[in-house]
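Please, structure for the following, as C-alpha cells.
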Amino acid sequence: MAILARMNSPWTLVAGLLIAAAVAFARPDPAPAQALERIGDFKDWSAFTTGDGGSKVCFMSSQPLRDEGNYTNRGSIYTFVTHRPSEGRVGEVNVKPGYTYQDGSYVDLSIDGQKFQLVTQEGNAWPHAPETDKKIIQAMIKGSSMIVRGTSSKGTLTTDTYSLLGFTNAYQAISRACGVN
C-alpha cells in the first residue's frame, strides 16, 4: 500500500497533471499544445484552464490520499472533472488509474456509500452517460470521501480513496472560468 502525501504546494502536481491532461484531453484530431493555467488549489482539489475563446477547457483534479493493491509498478493516479463548453460537454468525470484496465471490466465508484459503475477503455474510466456524470458530481458536492475500485489488465484489484474536501469550491471555480452554470 502506498500512501500519497497531501498536495499542499501549488506546483506539486503540475508535471504529472501536464502529462495526465495531455492524455485526458487527447482527441482524434490532435490540437496544438496549449498552456495550462492554474486557477487555484482548493484543499485536496486543484483547478486549471487551457485554451482560449471557443476552445477553452476547464478542469479540476485530485490524487487519492490512499492507493491500495498488490502491484509493483503503477503510474500517476488522478480523478478529473472537465468542462468543454465549446463541445457542449459540462461536468465530465474521468478516472485515470495509472495502469491499463482489464478488457471488459468496470470500475466501481462509491461516494459515502452511494454507488456508481464506470465503463473502461484502456487507462480511462467514465460514467456511461452524461446523466450519470451529473449524479456523481452532486454526490461529490455533498460527500466527504470517494472510493474507486478497478482491475488492471494484469488482474490486480486496486482501491483508491479520495478526499472530497475542496471539491465544491474547485467545481465552482472551473464553472466560473468556463462560463458554465
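The radius of gyration is 15 Å. Residues 2-177 form a domain with the Immunoglobulin-like fold (CATH 2.60.40.1880).
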